[in-house]
């Protein structure tokens, strides 16, 4: 299914035939992004959860919308090819995952990352890991880095804070607007 087009870049849902290319993209960004290693088998099975960015039939970015519970979904395996960085491809993919998660009835979208600044830029907030117990008691407890985790747990609510027409963040209030709203 094609999802959207912007500047010659198309977003679409991946399918099993993309699994090798997803694998290559994740492997290429494993160390830099501290990404969770993925096997070709699981990527084949879960390819349909991935949104991919495509330019002239080449996959230049990807991320998975992985359900952690009925309420919480996770952005997993986010990567953009080095040749396509800085062009808002990553933002477009996360934005699409957010739309999809909202449509599928999730209440929150989370991410575990060493790059909190990037997600803050997209409206996520840092939260204690235990606020995402679904993740801690499934994945984290099996991780060799458990209790010495260098990743930030990040969450964005999918209800009122998200406005599909205005994109991924509400405009920050100006100082003048904040001052005017303050009681005298
Ligand atoms: C992180 C990554 C996905 C970003 O993809 P990208 O397409 O280059 O990013 P975008 O172009 O969508 O984002 C650009 C915006 O994010 C901001 N940004 C990028 N990295 C940032 C960071 N670490 N902290 C804060 N802001 C950041 C840029 O300043 C830019 O802001 P602007 O729109 O106001 O100009 C890409 O660098 C990547 O694949 N890295 C390796 C794998 C990885 O780190 N994955 C994430 C693991 S959770």
Keywords:
binds coenzyme A; 184 residues; 6 helices; globular; alpha+beta; 8-stranded mixed beta sheet; single chain; Aminopeptidase
Compute the CA-based radius of gyration.
17 Å
Shape: globular
* Beta-strand content: 25-35%
Terminal Cα span: 54 Å
Unreliable runs:
none
Give a list of the ligands: coenzyme A
The secondary-structure class comes to: alpha+beta
- Name of the CATH architecture: 3-Layer(aba) Sandwich
CATH names the topology as: Aminopeptidase
What series of H and E elements makes up the topology? Answer: EEHHEEEHEHEHEH
* CATH superfamily descriptor: Gcn5-related N-acetyltransferase (GNAT)
Number of domains in the coordinates? 1
CATH class: Alpha Beta
Helix share, percent: 25-40%
DSSP summary: helix tally = 6
Major β-sheet profile? 8 strands, mixed
| Lateral arrangement of strands in the main beta sheet | 1-2-3-4-5-6-8-7
- The mean pLDDT is 87
Organism: uncultured Acidobacteria bacterium cosmid p2H8
InterPro entries: Acyl_CoA_acyltransferase, Bact_Acetyltransf, GNAT_dom
Keywords: Acyltransferase, Transferase
Protein name: Putative ArgA
What is the strand and helix layout of this fold?
Blueprint: E1 2-6, E2 9-13, H1 19-33, H2 40-46, E3 50-55, E4 58-67, E5 72-80, H3 89-103, E6 108-113, H4 116-121, E7 125-127, H5 133-136, E8 152-157, H6 175-181
Parallel strand pairs: 5-6
Antiparallel strand pairs: 1-2, 2-3, 3-4, 4-5, 6-8, 7-8
The structure holds coenzyme A.
